[in-house]
Amino acid sequence: MSPVKVGAVAAGFTRDLEFDLSRVEALIRHARRESVELLVLPDAALGGYLADLSNPALDDLPPALALDDPLIAKVIAMAGEMVVCFGFCEADAGLRYNTALCVTGDGVLGKHRKVHQPPGERAVYAAGSSFGAFDTPVGRLGMMIDYDKTFPEAARTLAVDGADVVACLCAWPTSITNRAPRMNEDRQSRLFDLYDRSRAAENQVVLVSSNLTGSIGGMRFLGQSKIVGPGGDIIARTWSKAGIAIAEVDVRAEIETARRVLHHLDERRPEVY
Questions:
Q1: What is the reported pTM?
Q2: What phi and psi values does residue 223 have, to the nearest 5 degrees?
Q3: Which one of 44, 71, 142, 247 has the fewest CB atoms closer than 10 angstroms to its CB?
Q4: Which residues of the chain have pLDDT under 70?
Q5: Under 8 Å between Cβ of 5 and 245
Q6: Digit-coded pLDDT (tens) for 165-194
Q7: Which CATH class is domain 4-272?
Q8: CA distances in angstroms from 51 to 28, 61, 115, listed in the order given
């Protein structure tokens, strides 16, 4: 395949769905001007994230949308020829899920429900139950949602399933228990980058990490959206400010180079783990 123009978004979203939709539209429009072919928006791009993880307010939850909601259809239409990943609160059979969709203007290519949940989420969201890769116009792709990337098995499952690109959609805040005065000194800031680079390098895949910026309630989000190569090198990033990290990546060539001598997936020994 030829090189792919990839964009990782750092932006803030709210409970106001019309505002969020207009921001999504503006980001897609900007990405299209830059000839982006794969755009990864953050978790909770429609409706925002929880305002408090220690004690979520049940009267201030992100709006829950069914897959056939007109707002979802509008994002699909906006995507057009672009592959767009975005997160929202999904309503299904009376339950809420923290969900990521991957779409083009032709419809839904893939869906992931967040599997791993920090304690506060468990009171609000039901957990997903699987990880799977799927084919897209820009190659085989898999998705994770923020806390999923803390667990090496999540990205490894996607890589074993053939994902060349892993999109990780995040609503990743600064430390809740020990917030540093400067964001770049925050423990969660260091972990966020560490997980991104480790998951890419250990699986020798391209990882596209998006994240929220700004604040909701007591939650302050890191930004730090980035594109990471299969050697764990950061190719492009936004730091803590809103924006889009954009890079042209020859995904297959980068992966083949990384796996030329050491091919981690082929050299696994599952029988002894």
A1: 0.97
A2: 70, -125
A3: 71
A4: none
A5: no
A6: 999 999 999 998 887 888 878 999 999 999
A7: alpha beta
A8: 26, 8, 20
